[in-house]
Write a structure and sequence with these properties.
Length: 204
């Protein structure tokens, strides 16, 4: 193998290593294309710091775009533009079983069109729902997105679904993972929640 081939091989490996996190990040989120009062919106929903494990620091995330008409579900398409100002229109309710917490969707630092909930720490492996709701330029919006156990990607759905008055979902792709148990070694991992439960039992 000559020097030029070695240089080319090294470049391919380097690009692959750089692209891998990007591919993982994009596959770990759910993309939903909506028509809201006559305008198309592309929302990308997920959790910060995926894959997500018990006791990880995370937040519900929403990336919002004016989509490229030629490739509307691709957030990286050339004509895609970020949507600003949604922090004044939308909130998120985070649901797990019979527990819930409500949070603003604040702009992510230094990232236009990206929004984050208040930080939280999953205490048990469970299924999360993120209910995004509010009023977008005079149109009520209320849609719930659910995590996928094991981080599996949900089947794509390109059917047209009427969500509510003047809100139509045109496509749903991908998925985001639910929080999972940590694997401890050499001893089993004990979550902060389990530890507090054990301390409570020993103190009574």
């Amino acid at each position: 193998m000559n020097k030029n081939h070695l240089i080319l091989l090294g470049a391919v490996i380097a690009v692959s290593m750089l692209a891998a996190p990007v591919l993982q990040m994009s596959s770990a989120h759910q993309r939903a294309l909506f028509n809201i009062n006559g305008k198309d919106y592309l929302f990308v929903i997920g959790s910060a710091n995926e894959p997500l494990y018990v006791d990880d620091k995370t937040a519900a995330t929403l990336d919002a775009y004016w989509p490229d008409a030629s490739d509307p579900t691709n957030s990286r398409a050339n004509g895609t533009q970020p949507i600003t100002g949604l922090e004044n229109m939308l909130k998120v309710e985070i649901l797990a079983g019979d527990k819930n917490m409500t949070s603003n969707l604040d702009p992510a630092f230094g990232e236009v069109g990206k929004y984050e909930s208040e930080t939280f720490y999953p205490t048990v492996p469970t299924t999360f729902d993120y209910r995004i709701y509010g009023n977008i330029n005079g149109t009520n919006f209320n849609v719930t997105f659910s995590c996928q156990p094991g981080g599996e990607t949900a089947p794509s759905d390109n059917s047209t679904v009427d969500i509510s008055e003047n809100v139509v979902r045109k496509a749903l792709q991908g998925g985001f993972g639910c929080p999972e148990d940590r694997k401890g070694f050499p001893e089993p991992y004990i979550s902060q929640y389990e530890l507090s439960q054990q301390l409570n039992r020993t103190s009574t």
